[in-house]
Amino acid sequence: MKRKKSPGPVRLAIIGTGGMAHTHARNFLAIPGCRIVAAADIDPARVAKFCAEFKIPAAYTSARELLAKSGCNAVTIVAPDAMHGPLALQSLKAGMHVLCEKPLALSYAEARRMAAAARKSGRVNMVNFSYRNWPALDAVAALVHRGAIGEVRHVEASYLQCWLSSKIWGDWHTSPGWLWRLSSKHGSRGTLGDIGVHIVDFATYPAGPLSSVFCKLKTFHKAPRDRVGPYILDANDSVVLAVEFANGAVGSIHTTRWSAGHANRLYLKISGTLGALEIDSDRSTTAFRICSGPDLDRAQWQEVKAPPVPTVYARFITSIRTGRPAQPDFARGAEVQKVLDACFKSDALGRPVRV
Ligand SMILES: NC(=O)c1ccc[n+]([C@@H]2O[C@H](COP(=O)([O-])OP(=O)(O)OC[C@H]3O[C@@H](n4cnc5c(N)ncnc54)[C@H](O)[C@@H]3O)[C@@H](O)[C@H]2O)c1
Asked: Would you say the pTM of this structure is higher than 0.85?
């Protein structure tokens, strides 16, 4: 659906001013036609420091006050996962265009409510599947969709981090920014909700929707009595999925925070009847590899540079200003959330579950 154009500068507000909000601020400040007019955080010192750092004119300690007083017409929600649903619904109700961090919600039911409210509002709504910013992913998706590797048969995807077995991003034992991610009481759905959501999007955007999942989740002992202060460390650390795609292909998807030696590595290999495509972010995010044509009989690979793509941040601003729809939207966020719900159900039942 084409929306009404809003060609003037976008007046953006940032809700949640922790770690990831810095990436949002840097990206939005670099986009012509976007002004950051306000920010909100429940922590007054943090929002004050953030506004000073990025020269943002107005700081609030509640989203409600920001929505009522700041004069913004768009928001980006960068608060912890449990707040995404309530803050997005509140923002849409106030007439805002909304970019929301991933995972869109804590459940498919909540994500569907958000997608329905967004559709009804007619406002731009996007979820920050930030690996869509990588040119290699778009190029691989376009090749698969165009039939360049024939019928898809087999998919391997993984997302590996190592912050539980290292101090690569600081000591998680003493950092609330990491500890909430380990605790379901603090709204985390574990590795599956945090980075599993990314790798499911990364695999299914090019290879197509899943029809079933067989999931194993694992939470390891990490601290005395499995807690640090108020944080009960019960959220999953490692995820292994055996999957089937609607197009009949099968595959494996896995993700963990225990992968020593990999700070943040995404890997995807899609094999079809006429060839295969591969992305390995430790090698490149702007180039991919292909084995097809005469290379098939020699099992050789060519590296191909991918054309640049606009970031999700830029697509959000362009969509507001031009009225043209942009992806990934809340409906896509809900589709991925449906897969996550099926994973939790499969793990609990110990058998494959239809998506
Ligand atoms: N797309 C990505 O690649 C990516 C990367 C990192 C984090 N994230 C997502 O970004 C979100 C934030 O992560 P983070 O690492 O910045 O966490 P963080 O803990 O560093 O920051 C979250 C901030 O939100 C604030 N907050 C909590 N409740 C709030 C509320 N009701 N209103 C306003 N502010 C509130 C907290 O005080 C804190 O300052 C999470 O949903 C996470 O999944 C996405």
From this structure: yes
